[in-house]
Amino acid sequence: MLLQIRHLSKDYLSGAARTEVLRDVSFDLDAGETLALEGESGSGKSTVLHLIAGLDSPTSGSILLKGREINGLPDQAAAGMRRSDVGVIFQQFNLIPSLTVGANIAFQARLAGKEDTAFVKELAERIGLADQTEKYPEALSGGQQQRVAIARTLAARPALILADEPTGNLDESTADAVLDLMLESAAGVGAAVLMVTHSARQAARMSRRILLRHGVVQPRLQVPSP
Ligand SMILES: Nc1ncnc2c1ncn2[C@@H]1O[C@H](COP(=O)(O)OP(=O)(O)OP(=O)(O)O)[C@@H](O)[C@H]1O
Q1: What secondary structure, in 3-state letters, does 138-163 show?
Q2: Superfamily name and number for 32-59+74-218
Q3: How far is the CA of 46 from the centre of ligand 1 (A)?
Q4: How many angstroms does the Cα of residue 60 sit away from the middle of ligand 1?
Q5: What pLDDT does residue 70 have?
Q6: Burial class (CB in 10 A: 0-12, 13-18, 19+), 10
Q7: pTM higher than 0.95, yes or no?
Q8: Which one of 9, 12, 214 would you pick to mutate in the ligand 1 pocket, going by the greatest count of ligand atoms within 8 A of its CB?
Q9: What radius of gyration do the chain's Cα atoms show?
Q10: Hey, whose CA ends up nearest to atom 29 of ligand 1?
């Protein structure tokens, strides 16, 4: 099992007030699987991703990556595991404006010590930007920038991609094309995808779906057959 989330809870304290954002969230994700995390605004979707990505720590519960607990590991050890196994794609593309498209694609792989020039070139081709690698991100459209962000994540060959509304800034047809690319490319490198989305249409493209309501995983309602 690639990822095991067990009894994850998260509270935020502000003065004397305590807000329970996640309560006893548990789910698994297998290698190469794709899972949509759905729910209304404020239901805790991004918080789940942030905890897995190590951007925040849970109040209780455990996060096992490849069978190893990463919550509670010394920061450096957990960061090392995440760097080699986890890639993140956000709604904001977060490209580095002073680096060319090619250097942006190579950036994360270099940080993870997995730089591979031939693979970067192959990814640039796969995202349809092979002839634009010397340009800077500002010269690209939003859809193209998100393609670069996807290629940058894939270049480090992560086992797990965490995607938070990755197509939220794009119009519907561009969003569909970018999602296709993300899923095809993830399958190409055998990466699993955990994607937060508001879009039921996009969620339907994933192999499994989980619904969060007020920080609690909901049992799926079965639609009766006609
Ligand atoms: N740092 C924080 N301090 C206090 N409360 C927070 C913090 N971060 C998130 N929250 C609260 O936690 C709840 C869940 O937020 P989260 O961003 O996970 O929801 P979401 O389902 O991803 O929403 P959206 O779809 O709008 O992005 C919200 O009520 C939010 O106000």
Answers
A1: HHCCHHHHHHHHHHHHHHCCCCEEEE
A2: P-loop containing nucleotide triphosphate hydrolases (3.40.50.300)
A3: 7
A4: 17
A5: 86
A6: buried
A7: no
A8: 12
A9: 18
A10: 42
Residues forming a β-bridge with 162: 88, 194
* String of DSSP letters for 82-150: HHHHEEEE-SS----TTS-HHHHHHHHHHHTT---HHHHHHHHHHTT-GGGTTS-GGGS-HHHHHHHHH
For the chain, domain boundaries:
32-59+74-218
Query: Distance between CA 13 and CA 35 in Å, rounded?
Result: 30
Tell me, in angstroms, the distance from the centre of ligand 1 to residue 16's CA.
18
Distance 221 CA to ligand 1 centre (A): 25
Q: What is the mean pLDDT of each run of 10 residues along the chain (226 residues)?
A: 97 91 96 95 95 91 92 75 87 92 93 89 90 96 92 92 91 88 91 93 92 91 52
- How does strand 60-65 pair with strand 3-14? antiparallel
Separation of alpha carbons 28 and 47, rounded Å:
17
Residues with CB under 6 A from ligand 1: 12, 19, 21, 39, 41-47
Q: In this predicted structure, what is the pLDDT of residue 226? A: 54
Q: What pLDDT does residue 221 have?
A: 55
Best CA proximity match to 3, nearest among 48, 40, 39: 48
Instruction: Choose among 55, 149, 141, 45: nearest CA to 93.
Output: 149
> In whole angstroms, what is the distance from residue 143 CA to residue 181 CA?
11
